[in-house]
Amino acid sequence: xxxxxxxxxxxxxxxxxxxxxxxxxxxxxxxxxxxxxxxxxxxxxxxxxxxxxxxxxxxxxxxxxxx
Length: 67
Prior knowledge:
67 residues; mainly alpha; 3 helices; 0% strand
C-alpha cells in the first residue's frame, strides 16, 4: 500500500504530486491495466512477437539494415 504523509506546511497539490509519483514508480497503474482483462497465453506470445518485430523494424530504419 502506498502512503504519503502530508507535512505541516506542505500544500495538498504537492502531496498529490508525490502520491502520483509513488504510484507510477510502483507500477500500480501498469499492473491494473495488464490484469484488467484476461489474455490467453497464445495472445500474449503474439503481442510480444509483434512488439519485437516493430522494434526491430524501427531500429533497422534508424541505423540502416546490415543484412
